[in-house]
Amino acid sequence: MLCFVSFFTVDVEVSGLSFATYVNCGRQVIDEVVIPETFIDRVGMALHESLIFVLRGGDHFVGCYNRERNTLSGIASFCKMLGKNHLDCYNILFFTYDGSRNFNVNAFDAAMVETSVYPIQSLRYQVVPYITAFHIMVGHYDMLPYTSTVEIMIKYRNVALTWDKADWITVCKDDQRWILAVYKHKHRLTTSIINGWIKLRDDCNLAVGDICVFEWKDETLRNFNIRILKNDGNRVSF
Known about the structure:
By secondary structure, the chain is mostly beta strands. The protein has helices at 37-43, 75-82, 123-126, 197-203; strands spanning 11-13, 16-22, 32-34, 50-55, 60-66, 71-73, 92-97, 102-108, 114-115, 133-137, 150-152, 166-173, 176-184, 191-195, 211-216, 223-231, 236-237. It has 2 domains: 11-126, Beta Barrel (At1g16640 B3 domain); 133-237, Beta Barrel (At1g16640 B3 domain), CATH 2.40.330. Strand 8 (102-108) and strand 9 (114-115) form a beta hairpin.
């Protein structure tokens, strides 16, 4: 649900522009917070659609920025990390933008004292369980001379959860590296590689029936290692 929380002083610190919101929704689940207009005026154009909220201890959860509504969403994942149904144990959440895709989040209690946050399980295993890998099986169409678009199957749609609508990912194998342009289709709920496939295909000597395994490499969510499972005609093998 959208919870309209009140906000107050926007402040500039060394670490970046910050704003705070009162969590005054009782036992209702907060998923979105409205960003102050003064904050949007300063950094709105720089904000990415996909964001990562980072807690003091390093745990983090994925969120989104809605440019039309000027909201940050994904706060419900914070509750999930804590094993709670709501955030009534906190009074204020303090967001500090780091200038890239991250917001550092600090929580304060009713006495305005910063409260330690103890997730019951690290986010990387609980909130983002499906973005570790995706597979592409090479088909006849993918081997055509001018085929530059390859679709990532819908069952892997969560792999693109933190990507912008039009984005880039980096793919590595040994000392080789490829930059692939990706595009998220709004209504089809799928994502396609729209540029860079031909070079990757040719450099890796792919053939029909081979399986490309793209494995999440680091916490940027845009860097992947690739393994090629070769099709020997009877079975898929390394």
